[in-house]
Amino acid sequence: MIAAIRHDWSRDEVERLFALPFNDLLFQAQTVHRQYHDPNAVQVSTLLSIKTGGCPEDCAYCPQAARYATGVKAEKLMSVEAVLAKAQAAKDAGASRFCMGAAWRAPKDRDVAKVAEIVGAVKALGLQTCATLGMLSGPQADTLKAAGLDFYNHNIDTSPDYYGEVIHTRDMQDRLDTLEHVRAAGMKTCCGGIVGMGESRAQRAGLLQTLANLPEHPESVPINRLVQVAGTPLAGTEALDPFEFVRSIAVARLLMPASVVRLSAGRESMDDALQALCFAAGANSIFYGEKLLTTGNPDVEHDRRLFERLGLKPMEVAFEPGTVHADIVEPAHA
């Protein structure tokens, strides 16, 4: 029987999934994964920071927050030409989606106009486009949609009952409002969270429950493993058990069967065996390239070798200029 798309998961149901024997959980996740996806295809994206540092937020995990001494310097928005050169290089390296991140709490309208110009230029290269710029108003979302933006990333980060332990400069509802503006504009949502920030398993269940019970499942769901950066409040947090991270991937796959689940930040610290377990648990998207905003990422050649060893292939993405496409079967720290 094909797994149903649900939006009514209870916390108890999600916690029971987390508590399954590891092999049973992976079997269930892989079974559901095969119902909605090619089990050996992985969507490949590249993420570029087009405006780095100087963010006024206090997200406890983020090296781009101006208030933390992390060595990240505030920079201006990159030019269209500079971004295009990076986008072309990403396409040449095999990426099908190009994601652009800017360290703003909420961009000004003039900022959105500049990003819209960049989006249009990147889209013309034949790449899917994604951006993460902070909180958006409805009209700003409409502007980005008109420019050809396919996906907008805006993570909820953690469970509602742990959110206040990590961020104080905005609340969960601010994030949910931006997601509603993005959906209303007709763009696809890329929305996930970070695990390993000191939260409990019940709170990890709460993160995934919140995502699964949104009005529409995010088309892309990034599951980030905390990258600890010296100078941020979460530096020194006890590392999350690797098998617990795999469980988080598997539960995300079971709750959101048709979504692309992205193995996102933290991959640099994962060995090949752990990444292989994540793919078996239902992850089918990665970021490709040397940097993930301001933290390291496995290099392209290593990823290619890993794909060869596992018999994986890049997911093919149909693309027509001027239209929005999902890289999944219809019923995504980025």
Automatic annotation (TrEMBL):
Keyword entries, A-Z: 2Fe-2S, 4Fe-4S, Biotin biosynthesis, Iron, Iron-sulfur, Metal-binding, S-adenosyl-L-methionine, Transferase
Keyword Metal-binding: yes
Positions that bind [2Fe-2S] cluster: 99, 130, 190, 262
Enzyme Commission code: 2.8.1.6
Note on cofactor: Binds 1 [2Fe-2S] cluster. The cluster is coordinated with 3 cysteines and 1 arginine. Binds 1 [4Fe-4S] cluster. The cluster is coordinated with 3 cysteines and an exchangeable S-adenosyl-L-methionine.
Pathway assigned in UniProt: Cofactor biosynthesis; biotin biosynthesis; biotin from 7,8-diaminononanoate: step 2/2
Residues that bind [4Fe-4S] cluster: 55, 59, 62
SUPFAM superfamilies attached to this UniProt entry: Radical SAM enzymes
Cofactors that this protein relies on: [2Fe-2S] cluster; [4Fe-4S] cluster
Alphabetized InterPro entries for the sequence: Aldolase_TIM, BATS_dom, Biotin_synth/BioAB, Biotin_synthase, Elp3/MiaA/NifB-like_rSAM, rSAM, rSAM_sf
Swiss-Prot/TrEMBL catalytic activity: (4R,5S)-dethiobiotin + (sulfur carrier)-SH + 2 reduced [2Fe-2S]-[ferredoxin] + 2 S-adenosyl-L-methionine = (sulfur carrier)-H + biotin + 2 5'-deoxyadenosine + 2 L-methionine + 2 oxidized [2Fe-2S]-[ferredoxin]
Radical SAM core domain mapped to chain residues: 40-258
GO molecular function: biotin synthase activity
Highest taxon, organism lineage: Bacteria
Pfam families assigned: BATS, Radical_SAM
PANTHER family xrefs: BIOTIN SYNTHASE, BIOTIN SYNTHASE, MITOCHONDRIAL
Record text on subunit structure and interactions: Homodimer.
Family: Belongs to the radical SAM superfamily. Biotin synthase family.
Function: Catalyzes the conversion of dethiobiotin (DTB) to biotin by the insertion of a sulfur atom into dethiobiotin via a radical-based mechanism.
Name of this chain's protein: Biotin synthase
